[in-house]
From TrEMBL, chain A:
Protein name: Spore germination protein
InterPro entries the record matches: Spore_Ger (IPR004995), UPF0353/GerABKA_families (IPR050768)
Alphabetically ordered keywords of this record: Membrane, Transmembrane, Transmembrane helix
TM ranges: 346-365, 436-457, 469-491
Keyword Protein transport assigned: no
Basic and acidic residues composition-biased segments: 10-33
TrEMBL record, chain B:
Name used for this protein in its record: Uncharacterized protein
Any GO BP annotation: spore germination
Keyword Membrane: yes
Protein localization: Membrane
Family in the record: Belongs to the amino acid-polyamine-organocation (APC) superfamily. Spore germination protein (SGP) (TC 2.A.3.9) family.
Signal keyword on record: no
InterPro entries reported in the protein's UniProt record: Spore_GerAB (IPR004761)
Membrane topology, as annotated: Multi-pass membrane protein
Keyword annotations: Germination, Membrane, Transmembrane, Transmembrane helix, Transport
One Gene Ontology CC term in the entry: membrane
TM annotation in the entry: 20-40, 46-66, 86-105, 125-143, 152-172, 192-213, 225-247, 277-302, 314-332, 344-366
Length: 554, 383
């Protein structure tokens, strides 16, 4: 053991990149293999290869155009259009690609010329007029690109491009006619509010980035896009405000995302789990939001947003514990109320975490803390109950967790049945039957309600799990046990970081400037600076000199 | 902030140092020392606590002066630097022994309190074992983590103290203070004696913590430390003042955990009664800081004496020694009081004040100073 610390080689360096041999094979089977395969100029060969690679999937559509009227064998076409059915918008393809190519008077003669040329020289012509004519005169689509290898080909194909290939040409054209079903911008389901914008992110990456662009109209809002997931090839974009966001956080983030060697990214939580600083923690160290206005405000703080295609949940780094108690509405209503609600949320979190264990500790170890009248009432309630207090609490907590999961997972039509069975049958009759005392039911119910106060769902999960740990500690050691477990939790949280930022900032390390937006929400004109350590590049957020309102004079 | 920041885990701010100093000084002493002081100084005990403030500041100045000469080295390292390899190592070993005994005593205080008041039927080994698990985890995570935890505990301790003070206001009897200074200044001066060893000179832990302060925070250090000493003085004076005002000096002398007994008296409209457990929870927090700091310093110093590259491999074995030793170090409560009053003060002053003072004098005379970086994980095998 000592030798490890005393030896010259640090333990960190010895850890080489560990990858199973299967992973490398896996990568090779994917896109990398196609990188060195150029598009062949012979159309029949090319189309056969595409069909073969895709296993003749029936949603692959290949439309051949025989413009030179050769009326030869089938497959002997001049131009071929390749796309995935349903992934593109048919109307735009018909109108701006197929129609324009079909109706062009000069194209047939040019095609004939090209064919002659190819036959004579028997080689690829480097600069040929058909491709450039189609590209610059015929395709009436904004976003087009050139397809040179099979990697480009498949990438663009599944991004909703229609690909145009010409007999005899060594490259093709991809035209973006992305379409197909997608959800419209709706009010977010998880972050409800009374006042504030009603739009939420959708599953489409492009719509999400647009929503952010509409909030921050600045050329300094930069975006970088990459592909993650070796099979799924999911587009992932990171957005930040250049000059505000910390360059090293961005570098770090990009490196961490590039290091992900996973075959599929289906939700942003995949990314979240892969890039967190500490992997063994019940606390979420990366926050996710469904509202563009919240993400925009985070970008203005100097944080970085990670947008993943296929999910409305956008990640923000670095995030601190404090952010999990902030709701967007805090800034849209007056600050006294917002401050009150902040404190309410913090105390609800502690109630959700501690209430059952404090109840068990008091009943089991510190009965003297209860006022006499209440103690007599509780004793009378517990008279016929066969179980000790901690067992009661365990049973009820478990029942509640089962109920909660059941309500979440089942079809909504059966919801009323559960609430009757769960609420009335279990809740009421378990007390009447004398299996648990009604005080425990009250405690568990209140805990449950408090746990729903948290504006971000993922923090509630940590409280749910730790509650059981605290319950065990309280039933074995009373308040001493609670204090020990709380110390452990506190130590653990103090040790957490999110991209180098301490998780408990600004409570520990304490920072008065940042404290204005924690338990308190001071008026906006007093929040003059961005969060310390995050928005360091440009500290001043608000420069408006508030005009003192004069009292009416006599 | 890059991926690597926080990886080393050995830089703290000056504000954190001052909060740690406060928590360490209040630490386990808040519950035990008032009894000793009031036993000697009677109703003038609170004056002793006021008088002790400049003394504590003077003691801390010695550590600060040493830090200025050797900004990045702990006492084990500059002892070796000043006195040569073998004498230096033996001086460092006396500190190792000091912190070992200190950790054991602190743990024993904690266990005594718990088993006598809150958990009378729980076996003592279970209490000390569970507490040591938390300490082990904290020390293993490193000084930055302990410092951040300390910041939260600092706020929490002040909060509870304010609540306790306010809720005791209806029971203050100012006549308990009379006669003030009946025997002149002699009795309060005598009352300072137990405080001198426990906790004042135990603050020698600073000599191993100060090298961890960030370079940019060094200037604020003097002011921060002074603030910590002032706050500590104010809080302890307040505690002793309340004790005498609420329970009287006679009652205070008779109860071994006087502050806990005082918190029992809280009674507001029969609703807020018997909240002493809240106080106990605060005390668990401050004792946690004190014990984890002393175990941390112990393992750091021992690691440096042995020439290791990290202190972490030492933490577990040391904890395994401290926990059982705490069960046998005293025979009973009388033994503990006797030891604290008669032996500990002398030993602690020798070790915590005299040895650093001699080292400082030697460094001054030999004009030795060094800016070498001796922090863990060290770049070279032996600093």
């Amino acid at each position: 053991m000592f030798g490890m610390y005393m030896s010259k080689k640090a333990g960190k360096d010895q850890k080489k990149e560990r990858r199973s041999p299967g992973a490398d094979k896996h990568v090779n089977e994917q896109m990398k293999d196609y990188e060195h395969q150029p598009v062949v100029p012979v159309l029949t060969e090319l189309l056969d290869k595409i069909k073969k690679e895709m296993g003749e999937s029936s949603d692959l559509i290949i439309r051949g155009l025989d413009l030179t009227d050769r009326q030869g064998k089938d497959g002997d076409k001049d131009i071929a259009l390749v796309y995935i059915q349903g992934l593109i918008e048919d109307e735009r393809l018909d109108k701006f690609v197929i129609q324009t190519i079909q109706q062009d008077p000069e194209l047939p003669s040019q095609l004939k010329q090209l064919k002659e040329q190819v036959r004579q020289t028997n080689a690829d012509s480097p600069e040929e007029p058909v491709l450039s004519r189609i590209k610059s005169h015929l395709i009436a689509i904004g976003l087009i690109c050139e397809i040179k290898t099979f990697k480009d080909l498949f990438e663009k194909l599944f991004l909703g491009y229609a690909l145009v290939f010409i007999e005899g040409s060594p490259s093709g054209i991809g035209c973006n006619v992305y379409g197909g079903p997608k959800r419209s911008v709706e009010e977010p389901k998880t972050e409800m509010m009374i006042r504030g914008p009603r739009e939420g992110f959708t599953e489409s990456l492009r719509v999400n980035t647009i929503l952010l662009r509409r909030k921050i109209r600045s050329p300094k809002l930069w975006m970088e896009q990459m592909k993650v997931g070796e099979i799924t090839q999911t587009p992932v974009a990171i957005m930040y405000i250049k000059g505000l966001a910390d360059e090293s956080v961005i570098e770090d983030l990009k490196r961490r995302i590039k290091d992900i060697k996973n075959d599929g990214i289906l939700e942003s939580s995949y990314i979240e789990e892969m890039i967190t600083d500490q992997k063994w923690t019940p606390f979420p160290t990366i926050i996710s939001h469904e509202r563009p206005d919240v993400i925009a405000s985070n970008l203005l703080d100097g944080r970085v947003a990670i947008i993943v295609d296929g999910t409305p949940f956008v990640l923000v780094v670095p995030s601190t514990l404090n952010m999990f108690f902030q709701a967007a509405e805090d800034y849209y209503q007056n600050y006294q109320m917002a401050t009150f609600l902040r404190m309410l949320r913090f105390s609800s979190f502690f109630i959700a975490l501690l209430m059952p264990s404090i109840y068990v500790a008091i009943i089991g170890y510190h009965q003297e803390m209860i006022p006499t009248q209440l103690l007599l009432k509780l004793a009378a309630q517990r008279e016929g109950v066969p179980f000790p207090a901690y067992l009661e609490a365990f049973i009820m907590e478990l029942v509640f967790e089962i109920l909660r999961e059941a309500v979440l997972r089942m079809p909504s039509t059966a919801g009323s049945a559960i609430s009757i069975v769960g609420g009335l049958v279990i809740g009421q009759s378990i007390v009447e039957a004398g299996i648990v005392s009604s005080a425990v039911v009250i405690v568990v119910a209140f805990t449950a309600i408090s746990s729903f106060v948290a504006p971000i769902y993922s923090l509630g999960i940590a409280a749910r799990l730790l509650r059981f740990l605290l319950l065990i500690a309280a039933s074995t050691l009373g308040f001493y046990g609670i204090a020990l477990v709380m110390l452990l939790i506190l130590l653990h949280m103090s040790n957490l970081t999110s991209f180098g930022i301490p998780y408990l900032k600004p409570f520990a390390p304490f920072n008065w400037k940042d404290f204005k937006d924690t338990l308190l929400r001071v008026p906006l004109w007093m929040m003059k600076e961005r969060p310390q350590q995050i928005g360091d590049r440009d500290q001043v957020r608000d420069n408006s000199a508030a005009e003192p309102r004069r009292e009416p004079s006599q | 902030m890059s991926m690597r920041s926080g990886y080393v885990n050995n830089e703290i701010t000056s504000r954190q140092v001052s909060k740690l100093l406060y928590l360490f000084s209040v630490g386990s002493a808040a519950l035990i020392v008032p009894t000793a002081t009031v036993t000697i100084a009677k109703q003038d005990g609170w004056i002793s606590m006021l008088l002790i403030v400049p003394v504590q500041y003077a003691i801390v100045l010695v550590y600060l002066a040493l830090m200025r000469r050797f900004p990045r080295m702990t006492i084990a390292q500059y002892a070796e630097f000043i006195a040569g390899r073998w004498i230096g190592k033996s001086i460092a070993l006396t500190f190792v022994f000091f912190f070992f005994i200190l950790s054991t005593l602190v743990l024993r205080n904690m266990v005594d309190f718990m088993s006598k008041t809150v958990l009378p039927q729980t076996p003592t080994w279970f209490i000390s074992g569970t507490f040591m698990i938390v300490i082990l985890y904290g020390v293993f995570l490193g000084i930055e983590t302990i410092a951040r935890t300390g910041e939260i505990l600092y706020i929490w301790s002040l909060f509870v103290l304010v609540i306790i003070t306010l809720s005791l206001m209806n029971q203050v009897h100012l006549e308990f203070f009379e006669p003030v200074l009946a025997n002149g200044l002699i009795t309060p001066l005598k009352g300072m004696y137990p405080v001198l060893g426990f906790p004042l000179t135990e603050c020698v832990f600073l000599t191993a913590i100060l090298p961890m302060v960030k370079e940019s925070e060094r200037e604020k250090l003097n002011r921060g430390i002074f603030g910590a000493v002032a706050v500590t003085g104010a809080i302890t004076t307040l505690i002793v003042f309340l004790l005498i005002a609420v329970m009287g000096s006679g009652e205070t002398t008779r109860s071994p955990f006087a502050v806990y007994e005082m918190a029992k008296l809280i009674n507001i409209e029969e609703i807020l009664v018997r909240v002493e457990i809240l106080f106990a929870v605060v005390w668990i927090g401050t004792v946690f800081v004190k014990l984890s700091l002393s175990v941390y310093v112990l393992s750091v110093l021992l690691g440096q004496v042995l020439g290791l590259r990290a202190y972490r491999p030492l933490v577990f074995p040391l904890c395994m020694l401290i926990a059982p030793l705490s069960l046998i170090i005293y025979r009973n409560g009388v033994h503990s009081t006797n030891f604290a009053m008669n032996v500990w003060t002398v030993y602690s002053v020798m070790q915590g004040l005299l040895v650093p003072l001699l080292l400082l004098l030697a460094a001054l005379l030999m004009r030795k100073r060094s800016r070498k970086d001796g922090r863990f994980p060290s770049k070279e095998p032996n600093a």
